[in-house]
Structures are given as C-alpha cells and as structure tokens.
C-alpha cells in the first residue's frame, strides 16, 4: 500500500468512527498515525519550509510577503498584476501561471512583496500538479490570500484549506497553548489550568503512546484544545499564518448589496447562499477585473500583516513622517529599529526617547534597546 492509500484508509476510518468515551483512545491513535504518514509523504523538504524549488524560489524583498493561493482561473494574476504593476500572464485558460511571479506594492510606506502562484487543485499535497511547490512557497509567506470565485466559494475553500492543513500550515490560528516535555521516568502526568472540553485523558495517552512517549509532562492551558492541537505540538513543524479569503468576481450589484447588508431579494444568488458567504470570517468581496472594493482589501491586508511603523526624529527637528522604518510585530524593539537603519547604531546609542502608544507619557519616555515599540511611534536616538 502506498502512503497516500494508507492516509486515505485512516481518513475513512476516522470518518466512520463516532467520537465518544469508548472510541477516544482509538481516535487519538488514528490522528497521530495520520500526522506521521503525512510527514512521511512530504519528505524532508515538506516539513521544514524553505522554498518550492526551481522557478518557485524567488528573491525575497520587502518587509513582508503575501502569497496568492487558489484554484486555477479565479483571478489571482489579474489581481497581482493590477496591484503591483508587474506583468503576470492572465487568461481564461486554467494553469496560465506556471511559477512564482513576484511583485511589490507599497502600503502605508511599507514595501510588501506579492507572490502570484500557479493554481492548485484537490490532491495538491499528494503531488498532483505543482501543488506541493505552490504550498511550499505559501508556507514561507507572512500572509496568505485564499482567492475564491464568488460563485463556488465554499467547496473550493474547504479543499484549499485541507491541502494547506496537510502541509502543516495553520490558518488564522495561534500556536496551541500546550506544553509537552519528555522525561526519563515517572510515566505520563497531565495537568490542565482550564477544563478540557475537546480532548480527554484517553486521547492524550493514545497520542503519546503512538509517538512512543511513555514518560512525559503535558500541560494544557487552552480550554478548547483538541487532539489535533496536541499532535501539532508534538510534530512541531507547523506554521501559523494569517489568511484572508478574497471572494473575487463579484459584480457591482452584489457588492453594493453586500456593503449595505440590505437583505432583500436579489436574483442571481439565493439569500441562503449569501448568508453563508457573510459568515466566512476574514473574507473580503472584490472584483479584480472591475477593480471593486480593492481599498477595503488593502486595509484588511495591512491590518492582518500587523506591521509596526516607526518614525525617526532627529535632534531639534520634527519627525520624518515620509519614510517610516517598518518592523514586524515581535521584532519591534528599539534594537530592531536601530538595526534596520544601520548595524552600528545600537552600539552607539546612549538612550532613545519614544513618543506614541508605547511611551508612558505624552512628553516622551527615555528607554533602552529592549523597549518594544508600537505602530506609529516616534523615536529619537541619542548617541554616546
Ligand atoms: N468576471 C470577472 N472575471 C475575472 C475577474 N478577475 C479575473 N477574471 C477573469 O478570469 C480569468 C482568469 O484570470 P487569471 O488572472 O488568469 O486567473 P488565475 O487565478 O491567475 O489563473 P491561473 O494562473 O491559471 O491559476 C481571466 O479571463 C480573467 O479576465 C473578475 O473580477 N471578474
Ligand atoms: K487562468
Ligand atoms: Mg495566474
């Protein structure tokens, strides 16, 4: 049996096994087995990230990157070309785009790299089409646009999500608040700071046993933690990436309808369908061809990238608002700010003065290299 067949077999068994007290050990085992098989399938390059191989690895520029993932001909290249001014072939024929096509776009002064990617189809992570290379590139992005055709969004959404999931990508999700520590002896000790609603002791034990962990401390600090979360923590090579669902090819009336949320009868799409579309979290309806609602898409993209703009203030002069230093959240200390300007500056700094959201008071706060900056702070570096 091939790995793909084994995966299919386990998935089928999981689908027909009802979750209850008596089956939870078995289900836990199956989940762990599935994760191990998927890792096998993806091989050494799959889990670790890196790029997607020849024609797929492109030079990375800008402060952050956004990858476009979707079925063929949903309008990815049309959107990317118009946004960045970089030509990427478009046509009504599927699989027009064959490699990664990079472009850049400035948003609020921050250069963002946009990666147009080939279309993917169901079975992409099993090696169908160029799916695996596409998803390997998506794994390295700071934000993913899942581009959907508004007329068939829900089915496509489910398929793309599961392809990305199978490749270790977790969308719009925080890393699970679960800690697993292997020990030499002492058996399994499970502690939870919150009541567990989605996972029980049997499932935890089955998973640990499947990974041959007979001595371990497991600490769960997340009420809705699931068996999949535990498997993710043990596997350890997951990436957590924000995603926006871009519902493309909306027509004007639909969009006006959407924006005013005026739930009256419309002819082309049923109220039920529309209701389901409304409920997709993190979704934005647009038309890349008619250039509708692109401003809203850009604003949501900016918010989800969660970047930190910092303005420099020379001594005795007003801040320079024209050219922010753009940092990533989690790497936005004064030291990161210094390094982004020049690698010697942090060494030469005596102290910094900060104005803005991260400062304690409006007149400015004297801080050191470790101080964490917020979006739109103003910083003056005082040298030794
Ligand atoms: N009606 C409509 N058609 C669009 C829109 N955006 C793109 N299209 C059309 O959809 C077709 C596919 O567009 P592409 O940009 O090539 O799509 P793609 O997703 O890059 O396709 P692949 O590279 O083949 O995966 C083209 O004929 C576009 O003109 C839109 O907003 N509305
Ligand atoms: K196309
Ligand atoms: Mg394309």
Characterise the protein shown here.
Keywords: GTP-binding, Nucleotide-binding. This is OBG-type G domain-containing protein. GO terms for molecular function: GTP binding; GTPase activity. This protein folds into three domains: 108 residues, no CATH class; 176 residues, Rossmann fold (3-Layer(aba) Sandwich), CATH 3.40.50.300; 76 residues, Roll (Ubiquitin-like (UB roll)), CATH 3.10.20. It is 34% helix and 22% strand. It has twelve helices and 16 strands. A hairpin with a 2-residue loop joins β2 and β3. α2 runs parallel beside α7. The chain is globular. The termini are far apart. About 3% of the residues have low confidence.
What sort of overall outline do the alpha carbons produce when their principal axes are compared? globular
State the CATH architecture of the largest domain.
3-Layer(aba) Sandwich
In terms of quaternary structure, the protein is single chain
**Structure ligands:** guanosine-5'-triphosphate, potassium ion, magnesium ion
- What is the H level of CATH, i.e. the homologous superfamily of the largest domain? P-loop containing nucleotide triphosphate hydrolases
Radius of gyration: 24 Å
H/E series, N to C? HHEHEEHEHEEEHEHEEHHEHEEHHEEE
What is the SS-derived class?
alpha/beta
Give the spatial strand order of the biggest sheet: 2-3-1-4-10-11
The helical percent reads: 25-40%
Strand content: 15-25%
**What's the total count of β strands?**
16
CA distance, first residue to last residue = 68 Å
In CATH, what is the class of the largest domain?
Answer: Alpha Beta
